[in-house]
């Protein structure tokens, strides 16, 4: 019976180095996976929400029809303005131009009609303008 017994001697220092390098290798592989794998589609910021173009809706004030013009591209609201505001309407309703400018600024920042703050001076006019903008954006939405 001749068995050749092999004795393996491991130094504790070698075991520790191997464990540390194996841990670093796993961390490096995980880091590379997180960095280079494609992101989720939910995190896509610029989704196509609108058909690019200029859309209008009508607001009637004192038997005068005003058109609210909303310009959009695929994912952003670019411009909101009155397309046929003349001097007589601006004189009769002096707060209408500042109201649409204030609302337009908020919409540009948020790119949404949610949480729009109305001016205390003209809440009803602001609500009419927001309804007109919403109607124009419904026309612009992609199916």
Textual characterization of the structure:
The protein has 143 residues and is of the alpha+beta class. Helices cover 45% and strands 17% of the residues. A hairpin with a 2-residue loop joins strand 1 (53-61) and strand 2. The radius of gyration is 32 Å and the shape is rod-shaped. It starts with 11 loop residues before the first helix and ends with a helix. The model has no long low-confidence stretch (mean pLDDT 85).
Give the topology, please.
Elements: H1 12-36, E1 53-61, E2 64-72, E3 77-82, H2 87-92, H3 96-110, H4 123-140
Helix pairs in contact: 3-4
Helix-residue proportion: 40-55%
Distance between the termini: 85 Å
Strand order of the largest sheet: 1-2-3
Number of DSSP E strands: 3
Q: So what's the oligomer here?
A: single chain
CATH topology of the domain at 53-140: Sufe protein. Chain: A
**CATH 2nd-level architecture of the domain at 53-140:** Alpha-Beta Complex
Outline type: rod-shaped
Biggest sheet: strands, sense, closure?
3 strands, antiparallel
The secondary-structure element order is HEEEHHH
Integer average pLDDT:
85
- Which spans have pLDDT < 50 for at least 5 consecutive residues? none
Beta-strand portion reads 15-25%
> Structural class, from helix and strand content?
alpha+beta
